[in-house]
Protein backbone atom coordinates (compact mmCIF):
# COMPACT_ATOMS: atom_id res chain seq x y z
CA UNK A 1 0.00 0.00 0.00
CA UNK A 2 1.21 3.51 -0.82
CA UNK A 3 1.40 6.01 2.01
CA UNK A 4 2.31 9.67 2.10
CA UNK A 5 5.43 10.81 3.91
CA UNK A 6 5.63 13.64 6.43
CA UNK A 7 7.10 16.82 4.87
CA UNK A 8 9.52 17.31 7.78
CA UNK A 9 11.48 14.27 6.66
CA UNK A 10 12.66 16.30 3.67
CA UNK A 11 13.68 19.45 5.50
CA UNK A 12 17.36 18.48 5.39
CA UNK A 13 17.23 17.12 1.84
CA UNK A 14 17.73 18.85 -1.48
CA UNK A 15 14.11 18.27 -2.45
CA UNK A 16 11.72 20.25 -4.65
CA UNK A 17 8.06 19.34 -4.45
CA UNK A 18 6.41 18.55 -7.78
CA UNK A 19 2.66 19.36 -7.67
CA UNK A 20 1.95 17.17 -10.71
CA UNK A 21 3.50 14.11 -9.07
CA UNK A 22 1.95 14.99 -5.71
CA UNK A 23 -1.52 14.80 -7.28
CA UNK A 24 -0.68 11.31 -8.55
CA UNK A 25 0.43 10.24 -5.08
CA UNK A 26 -2.70 11.67 -3.46
CA UNK A 27 -4.96 9.73 -5.84
CA UNK A 28 -3.00 6.52 -5.28
CA UNK A 29 -3.23 6.91 -1.50
CA UNK A 30 -6.95 7.68 -1.53
CA UNK A 31 -8.17 5.42 -4.34
CA UNK A 32 -5.33 2.94 -5.07
CA UNK A 33 -5.37 4.17 -8.67
CA UNK A 34 -5.15 7.43 -10.59
CA UNK A 35 -5.94 8.69 -14.07
CA UNK A 36 -3.62 11.34 -15.51
CA UNK A 37 -4.69 13.12 -18.68
CA UNK A 38 -2.00 14.60 -20.94
CA UNK A 39 0.86 12.81 -19.16
CA UNK A 40 2.24 12.75 -22.71
CA UNK A 41 1.44 15.64 -25.03
CA UNK A 42 0.10 15.24 -28.57
CA UNK A 43 3.54 15.37 -30.21
CA UNK A 44 4.94 12.76 -27.83
CA UNK A 45 1.95 10.49 -28.33
CA UNK A 46 2.35 10.76 -32.11
CA UNK A 47 6.04 9.80 -31.89
CA UNK A 48 5.30 6.76 -29.74
CA UNK A 49 2.27 5.76 -31.82
CA UNK A 50 4.29 5.93 -35.05
CA UNK A 51 7.08 3.86 -33.50
CA UNK A 52 4.57 1.24 -32.32
CA UNK A 53 2.91 1.03 -35.74
CA UNK A 54 6.24 0.79 -37.55
CA UNK A 55 7.43 -2.07 -35.36
CA UNK A 56 4.08 -3.84 -35.70
CA UNK A 57 4.24 -3.59 -39.49
CA UNK A 58 7.76 -5.04 -39.33
CA UNK A 59 6.29 -8.11 -37.57
CA UNK A 60 8.26 -7.49 -34.36
CA UNK A 61 5.20 -8.11 -32.14
CA UNK A 62 4.11 -11.47 -30.78
CA UNK A 63 0.82 -12.79 -29.46
CA UNK A 64 0.51 -11.94 -25.77
CA UNK A 65 0.41 -14.72 -23.18
CA UNK A 66 -0.81 -15.11 -19.62
CA UNK A 67 1.54 -15.83 -16.74
CA UNK A 68 5.03 -14.50 -16.20
CA UNK A 69 7.99 -15.08 -18.50
CA UNK A 70 8.77 -18.40 -16.79
CA UNK A 71 5.28 -19.77 -17.36
CA UNK A 72 3.70 -18.19 -20.43
CA UNK A 73 0.53 -19.63 -21.92
CA UNK A 74 -1.17 -18.12 -24.96
CA UNK A 75 -4.91 -18.05 -24.25
CA UNK A 76 -7.05 -16.28 -26.86
CA UNK A 77 -10.16 -16.72 -24.72
CA UNK A 78 -8.56 -14.61 -21.96
CA UNK A 79 -6.62 -11.91 -23.82
CA UNK A 80 -6.22 -10.92 -27.46
CA UNK A 81 -3.46 -8.34 -27.65
CA UNK A 82 -0.10 -8.42 -29.41
CA UNK A 83 2.96 -7.07 -27.58
CA UNK A 84 6.58 -6.03 -28.03
CA UNK A 85 8.79 -5.78 -24.94
CA UNK A 86 10.80 -2.55 -24.70
CA UNK A 87 14.51 -2.61 -23.88
CA UNK A 88 15.58 0.71 -22.37
CA UNK A 89 19.24 0.06 -23.25
CA UNK A 90 18.30 -0.22 -26.93
CA UNK A 91 15.59 2.43 -27.00
CA UNK A 92 15.08 4.69 -29.99
CA UNK A 93 14.19 8.39 -29.84
CA UNK A 94 10.52 7.84 -29.05
CA UNK A 95 11.18 5.15 -26.45
CA UNK A 96 13.88 7.27 -24.79
CA UNK A 97 11.33 10.06 -24.41
CA UNK A 98 8.99 7.58 -22.74
CA UNK A 99 11.57 6.15 -20.34
CA UNK A 100 12.87 9.60 -19.36
CA UNK A 101 9.40 10.58 -18.14
CA UNK A 102 8.84 7.28 -16.37
CA UNK A 103 12.23 7.42 -14.67
CA UNK A 104 11.51 10.92 -13.40
CA UNK A 105 8.25 9.73 -11.84
CA UNK A 106 9.90 6.63 -10.34
CA UNK A 107 12.65 8.74 -8.77
CA UNK A 108 10.06 11.03 -7.18
CA UNK A 109 7.96 8.14 -5.87
CA UNK A 110 11.01 6.50 -4.32
CA UNK A 111 12.07 9.74 -2.63
CA UNK A 112 8.65 10.67 -1.29
CA UNK A 113 6.93 7.35 -0.65
CA UNK A 114 9.93 5.06 -0.15
CA UNK A 115 8.42 2.50 -2.52
CA UNK A 116 11.72 0.81 -3.27
CA UNK A 117 11.09 0.60 -7.02
CA UNK A 118 14.25 -0.96 -8.45
CA UNK A 119 13.22 -2.30 -11.84
CA UNK A 120 10.55 -1.79 -14.45
CA UNK A 121 9.21 -3.63 -17.47
CA UNK A 122 7.15 -2.18 -20.30
CA UNK A 123 5.83 -3.32 -23.64
CA UNK A 124 3.95 -1.89 -26.58
CA UNK A 125 0.47 -3.40 -26.84
CA UNK A 126 -1.92 -3.53 -29.78
CA UNK A 127 -5.44 -4.88 -29.40
CA UNK A 128 -6.98 -5.67 -32.81
CA UNK A 129 -10.69 -5.14 -33.39
CA UNK A 130 -12.82 -7.52 -31.35
CA UNK A 131 -10.15 -8.43 -28.79
CA UNK A 132 -10.22 -7.96 -25.01
CA UNK A 133 -8.53 -9.00 -21.76
CA UNK A 134 -10.62 -10.73 -19.11
CA UNK A 135 -10.69 -9.60 -15.48
CA UNK A 136 -7.41 -10.35 -13.70
CA UNK A 137 -4.82 -9.20 -11.15
CA UNK A 138 -1.35 -8.05 -12.21
CA UNK A 139 0.64 -10.33 -9.93
CA UNK A 140 1.74 -13.97 -9.92
CA UNK A 141 1.84 -16.72 -7.32
CA UNK A 142 5.59 -17.16 -7.87
CA UNK A 143 6.49 -13.47 -8.30
CA UNK A 144 5.07 -10.63 -6.20
CA UNK A 145 7.49 -7.88 -7.22
CA UNK A 146 5.03 -5.81 -9.24
CA UNK A 147 4.11 -2.76 -7.17
CA UNK A 148 2.43 -0.37 -9.60
CA UNK A 149 0.83 -1.07 -12.98
CA UNK A 150 0.86 1.61 -15.69
CA UNK A 151 -1.01 1.94 -18.97
CA UNK A 152 -0.08 4.76 -21.37
CA UNK A 153 -2.55 5.25 -24.23
CA UNK A 154 -1.35 6.03 -27.76
CA UNK A 155 -4.60 6.03 -29.71
CA UNK A 156 -5.45 8.46 -32.50
CA UNK A 157 -6.62 11.99 -31.70
CA UNK A 158 -10.15 11.22 -32.90
CA UNK A 159 -10.59 8.27 -30.52
CA UNK A 160 -14.18 8.09 -29.27
CA UNK A 161 -15.80 6.16 -26.37
CA UNK A 162 -17.81 4.05 -28.80
CA UNK A 163 -14.51 2.57 -30.01
CA UNK A 164 -14.51 0.53 -26.80
CA UNK A 165 -11.39 -0.86 -25.19
CA UNK A 166 -12.06 0.83 -21.87
CA UNK A 167 -10.10 -0.28 -18.82
CA UNK A 168 -12.45 -1.30 -16.01
CA UNK A 169 -10.96 -1.21 -12.50
CA UNK A 170 -12.72 -3.02 -9.66
CA UNK A 171 -12.43 -1.85 -6.05
CA UNK A 172 -14.40 -1.99 -2.83
CA UNK A 173 -16.19 0.80 -1.00
CA UNK A 174 -17.83 0.09 2.36
CA UNK A 175 -17.81 -3.62 1.65
CA UNK A 176 -19.47 -3.24 -1.75
CA UNK A 177 -17.69 -3.84 -5.06
CA UNK A 178 -17.62 -0.88 -7.41
CA UNK A 179 -16.19 -0.51 -10.90
CA UNK A 180 -14.70 2.40 -12.80
CA UNK A 181 -14.50 2.49 -16.61
CA UNK A 182 -11.55 4.49 -17.98
CA UNK A 183 -11.45 5.19 -21.71
CA UNK A 184 -8.11 4.97 -23.57
CA UNK A 185 -7.81 8.61 -24.63
CA UNK A 186 -4.46 9.55 -26.24
CA UNK A 187 -1.87 10.84 -23.77
CA UNK A 188 -3.77 9.48 -20.78
CA UNK A 189 -1.90 7.37 -18.23
CA UNK A 190 -3.53 5.11 -15.65
CA UNK A 191 -1.54 3.97 -12.61
CA UNK A 192 -2.83 1.46 -10.05
CA UNK A 193 -1.66 -0.93 -7.36
CA UNK A 194 -0.74 -4.20 -9.05
CA UNK A 195 -1.40 -6.51 -6.12
CA UNK A 196 -4.72 -4.97 -5.08
CA UNK A 197 -6.99 -4.00 -7.97
CA UNK A 198 -8.50 -6.45 -10.42
CA UNK A 199 -9.20 -5.02 -13.86
CA UNK A 200 -10.12 -5.90 -17.44
CA UNK A 201 -10.03 -4.49 -20.96
CA UNK A 202 -13.42 -4.45 -22.66
CA UNK A 203 -13.71 -5.51 -26.33
CA UNK A 204 -12.33 -2.95 -28.76
CA UNK A 205 -14.08 -1.82 -31.94
CA UNK A 206 -10.94 -0.45 -33.57
CA UNK A 207 -7.26 -1.09 -32.93
CA UNK A 208 -6.26 0.03 -29.42
CA UNK A 209 -2.64 1.15 -28.90
CA UNK A 210 -0.76 1.57 -25.64
CA UNK A 211 2.37 1.02 -23.60
CA UNK A 212 1.71 -1.19 -20.59
CA UNK A 213 4.11 -2.03 -17.79
CA UNK A 214 4.98 -2.41 -14.16
CA UNK A 215 7.18 -0.76 -11.56
CA UNK A 216 8.76 -3.50 -9.49
CA UNK A 217 10.46 -3.94 -6.14
CA UNK A 218 13.32 -6.35 -5.41
Automatic annotation (TrEMBL):
Gene3D superfamilies membership: q2cbj1_9rhob like domain (2.60.120.620)
Source domain of life is: Bacteria
Q: Where does the secretion signal sit in this chain?
A: none
Report the protein name in the record: SM-20-related protein
SMART domains found in the cross-reference section: P4Hc (SM00702)
* GO MF, one example: L-ascorbic acid binding
GO biological process terms held by the UniProt record: cellular response to hypoxia
Q: Sorted alphabetically, which Pfam families does this protein's record hold?
A: 2OG-FeII_Oxy_3
- Where would you find the membrane-spanning parts of this chain? none
Q: Which UniProt keywords apply?
A: Dioxygenase, Iron, Metal-binding, Oxidoreductase, Vitamin C
The UniProt record lists the Fe2OG dioxygenase domain at: 113-217
The protein's required cofactors: L-ascorbate
Amino acid sequence: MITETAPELFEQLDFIENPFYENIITDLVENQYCTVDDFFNAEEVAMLRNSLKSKFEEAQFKKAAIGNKNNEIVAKSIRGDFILWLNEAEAGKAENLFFNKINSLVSYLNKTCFLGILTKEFHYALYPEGTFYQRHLDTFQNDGRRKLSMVCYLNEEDWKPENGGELVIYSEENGVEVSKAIYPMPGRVVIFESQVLEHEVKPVQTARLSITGWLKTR
